Structure formats: C-alpha cells, structure tokens
Amino acid sequence: MFETFEAYITAKGHFTREELQLMRSLAIVKRYRRRQLLLKEGEVCQYKMFITKGLLKTYCLKNDGTEHIMRFAPENTWTTDHESFSKQIPSKANIEALEPTEVLLWTQDSLDRIMKAVPAFRTYLDALISNTLNSTYERILMNISYTSEEKYQDFISTYPDIFRRVPLHMVASYLGVSRETLSRIRHAQLKQQKLEP
C-alpha cells in the first residue's frame, strides 16, 4: 500500500530513501468496508488521509436526513476535515467509504515531524493546500454562477472516473441540484447526442 503513495509522492518531488522511510514509519495503514465511516460528525478528525485504493465521500447531513456531498476523494488524493484536524474541534462532516478502500493516515504530530525533517514534503504540502483553496474557490464560483447544465457538464468533464463510480443521486447532491433536474439534463443531452451526425 505504501508503494502506491511512494510512486505518487516521488512524482511530486525528490525524496531520499531515508525520507521515504520516515514517511512510511509514521503512516498508519487502514482498510475500510463499503459504507464504513472514517469520520463521524461530532468526532475530532485525527488524521490526514491519503487514498491508495477506493473512493471516499465527505458529506453533511441536515436534520431531515438530506445529504449534502462536499467532495469525493478517489485513489491518489488526500482528504480530511481540515478545520477539525487543524483546530482539533468536533467535525461538522462525515467521511465514508463508497467502495472497499485502503488509506494511509498521518496524525498532526506525524506530519509535523515529517515536515521538519523533509523540507521537500513541506513544500509539497504547501502547494497541495494552495491547490485545494483554488479548487474550493472554483467550486463556490460554480455553485453561485453556473446553470445546472453547466455544473453537470463541468463535473463529467472534470471527474469522468468518479461519474462512472457513483450513483446519480450522489452526483446531484454534489452539484446541489435535485435528482429530477439531473435526470432531465442527462436525458436532454443523450437526446441531443442522438440527433448529432
């Protein structure tokens, strides 16, 4: 499992054998079943998670049980509840495995140790945080300015692999549209594709 992470991280920068060994020694390996929670609302998030296999979703539940999906995390991506993890406060979100999933987990103390010993890893994490902020900004912009059709088109072009792996109601939840609206959009697009030569 660590080999997947090693291939990923060495593509992002140069790391010595000793530095990689330190990362490995501080990683916690976990496997989760489909529908198993990695984090439950109200718990304090203890880990930054790297997904080596599988797919996770981060979501919030309204009082009526309605689910609002904030993000999907497939293989070779990171996830956490950043606010809960960094401030050590109760999470407002849940993180759940959508498929059998394998992850590497690091605590804040472990990450601090790695960043002190491995400057290239600190540089990488700084870039990762910056990219995450940019993605969050783009998602907010999309939610307030895109039509439902544009949101759908953006999702399937940006995340084609995830689109094939999750049910339509989850895509609708992520996009902030009703399942009926998303079904109508898909039907209209399929009809249009059939009309095109």
TrEMBL record:
Pfam families with a match to the protein in the record: cNMP_binding (PF00027)
All copies of domain Cyclic nucleotide-binding, residue ranges: 30-116
UniProt protein name: Transcriptional regulator, Crp/Fnr family
